[in-house]
Structures are given as C-alpha cells and as structure tokens.
Write a structure and sequence with these properties.
8 strands, 22% strand, cNMP-bd_dom, kinase activity, RmlC-like_jellyroll
Length: 187
C-alpha cells in the first residue's frame, strides 16, 4: 500500500521496509466523495492529508463572494490548513474534494511521536516543508511578475493533467483572474 508515499519519502531519505511500515502504521485511510468538504473555516485542524487518489482544492471566498484557490492537491500531494494545523488556531480555508478521494491522514499527535522516535522522519518533514516553502515563493513571484498568459502556460506545463480534471473557472480562480479574462487570452 501507498507506493506514492514511499516514493515521496525516498526523494528525501532512505528507509528500510520496516521503517516505512512503522511510519505508515501511523496514518489512517479516509475516503470522501466528490464535493465533500474535509475542512471549513472555523474548524479545529488536527490532521494533514496525503492524497492517494483524487483531487482537492484549498480555497477561500471573499466578502463579495469571489473564490480564490490557494492550492489544488492531486495524487502524491499533501494538503491541510497548515496555519491551523501548526498553531492550533481555527481553520481559515475550505478544503473540498473535486473528485472522489482516498487520503492518508496523519494526526499532529502521531506526527510528533514520529519526530521523537525517528530522526529520519523529522528530516523528511523538514526537507518537505522547505521544498513546499520554495514552491510557494515561486508562485508568489509568478503572481507578482508574470502576466496571466505566462502564468497559465507555466501551470499547463507543470501540471497538464490538471486541465483535464478541473473547469477553466477553477484555473482562473487559481491564477487570480476572472473566467472572462482567461477566455480572452490567445490559448
């Protein structure tokens, strides 16, 4: 089970079968149907999720009803409201299933237990968080420096399968533009 999770760990650290099995024993499998909300604003967040199968979006809606998509999470990605997960504050984002999903869930308690017991796991988490932070910085800089067409093409190049799985309105919300603006582009 979870060859995707194993592969992700091995991008950063080497694990024996026994070590990986021990880590995996701390995860729970949860399945949700398309459209299910797994986190909503105001929730206490005790879990982070590794996507085994399916697609989710993390988003917020402003006072005018405009949706802003922070993240899509597909197979082999991690997702949670990390501010709430890390700080104990209440969730500010909504995470919704765009397809039927199968998730591996790791609680804060089990994550902290693994940190204490396995320096390799703590190293993985540190390197994975750093990688995620660098990705976020690149995305912010792209939003600040690149025009919509450039951001669209970059997203298409990086994640071509995403365009087969979500409507253009969601791509527009992720890029921070209206559906109409996206439609006017010469794509």
């Amino acid at each position: 089970m979870s060859s995707g999770l194993r592969k992700q760990f091995e991008e950063f650290i080497e694990l024996t079968n026994a070590e990986f099995d021990y880590i995996l024993s701390h995860f729970q499998v949860k399945k949700f149907k398309k459209h299910a909300i797994i986190i909503q604003p105001g929730d206490a967040v005790y879990l982070e999720y590794f996507v085994e199968k399916g697609l989710l979006k993390t988003f917020t809606i402003d006072n005018d009803g405009k949706e802003y998509i922070l993240q899509f999470a597909m197979e082999n990605w991690w997702v949670s409201d990390y501010q709430a997960y890390q700080t104990g504050e209440r969730a500010i984002y909504t995470i919704q299933c765009l397809e039927d999903v199968e998730l591996l869930c790791l609680s804060q308690q089990d994550r902290n237990k693994l940190y204490e017991e396995m320096p390799k796991f703590e190293r993985f988490a540190r390197l994975k968080v750093t990688s995620g932070f660098l990705h976020t910085q690149k995305r912010v800089m792209a939003l600040l420096q690149n025009d919509t067409l450039s951001r669209y093409k970059q997203l298409l190049e990086q994640y071509p399968s995403l365009f087969q799985r979500v409507p253009k309105s969601m791509i527009a919300a992720y890029l921070g533009v209206s559906r109409e603006t996206l439609s006017r582009l010469q794509i």
